[in-house]
Amino acid sequence: MGLKGVEVSRVVDQFFSDVPEPIAFGGLESSDPLSFKVYQPDRLVLGKRMEDHLRIAVCLWHSFNWPGSDVFGTGTFDRPWLASGVEPMAAARTKLDAAFEFIAKLGVPYFCFHDRDVAPEGRTFAETRANLESVVGQIEAHMARTGAKLLWGTANLFSHPRYAAGAATNPDPAVFAYAAAQVKLMLDATQRLGGQNYTLWGGREGYETLLNTDLSREEAQFARFLTLVAEHKHKIGFRGTLLIEPKPQEPTKHQYDYDCAAVHGFLVRHGLEGEYRVNIEANHATLAGHSFHHEVAYAVANGIFGSIDANRGDYQNGWDTDQFPNSVDELALALYEIVRAGGFTTGGFNFDAKLRRQSLARADLFHGHIGGIDTLARALLVAAGMIEQGAIERFREQRYAGWSEGLGASILAGDVSLEGLEALVGDGGIEPRPVSGRQELLENLVNQAIWAADRPAPKQNSGG
Ligand code: XUL
Ligand code: CO
Fold first, then answer.
1. pLDDT digits over 56-92, tens only?
2. Is the CB of 257 inside a 6 Å radius of any atom of ligand 1?
3. Which pTM does this prediction carry?
4. Domains in the chain, ordered, with CATH?
5. Does any ligand 1 atom lie closer than 6 A to the CB of residue 309?
6. Which of 39, 102, 115, 402 has its CB 3.0 to 4.6 Å from that of 377, i.e. a possible disulfide?
């Protein structure tokens, strides 16, 4: 039998009572697992506070709205508000109490949520809208009390059976309309909460089989949908960034937002490149056969870099395991691309990461986040070291120096034809010689920066 609402509220007065204090910086020597080893919000890195570089967010879905189930078994986690029989709006309240207790104790600035993470679907659309509005009022109060801010909001257009064949790309226009109505409500809610971004992840925007799918129609529908969302953003004066989150597959066999390049091509084809940026998830990049830092570099190079969903996959399998990130080596390369491009504007690192099913203790949610945050902080120090040292940047610049003057500049300016180039080469004036790409040397420089980041923080900046 499920708990009644009243009993649940009592349980969650201090849901994380085994973590009595906010998580503090303990440093590398600390033996307290509930302390940060590297992350110091106020520590200056390249003249900017660590907290402002990383802009960390907790996600409300994996951490508070998922019971620890998998395809072979039911939930294992201790999440009383997800128990059967709990009155849905009481469950929503107690879930938010626990989530904001967690965010405040972790001491990070942001959170992210889907409409369905916080507000139950009602029997009618009107009831669903009323549920969302009431819960948004509670979120507002939690934000005012704790100082937590909304990094981004999003609508869940993938869980309900109505979206089985897609939301915007559904063969039925009624489903398109329903999805549009849901996004309209959630974009309004995101604006009301001062959200910095609004994200669209097209989990069901794709196909299971081409035998029943009209690719060109679905692309046109998707473009119309994203245009409507951008128009509404301007209509209500939402100042945040619209983000598309690429993923190649899962749940559908093929998703249209396969990777950053596919999203960019789509935006350009439909005149939407000024309206949307990307929210890059590390495990989605690896699912698409890319490194995470490739996706970051691609987005930066094409002016669509927005935000990050931090997590990692497992090299031994090919799905979205969404584990907490723990590799400084890998993250340092992504941080290097982000920081050298000037860092986040409205984006940040959202922990779209979930505990393993056996991580049953309430404190495990802290351990996952603390480890992930420390890994990001350490990767930031490594990236800053690489930038300060400058050798990698200088090598890259020097490798392309020929394109800034003489022959290279005139080719790029369109001053010389194919015939002209043949004449230049034929006259014997051009004799290219292969030069070393120096990959091993550059990799050694990265490792040097990783090892050098062991140095303790300078005394004057060690607050936080
Ligand atoms: C799914 C995923 C989503 C989006 C938001 O793989 O990453 O949680 O981040 O809908
Ligand atoms: Co994600």
1. 999 999 999 999 999 999 999 999 999 999 999 999 9
2. no
3. 0.95
4. 7-389 (3.20.20.150)
5. yes
6. 39
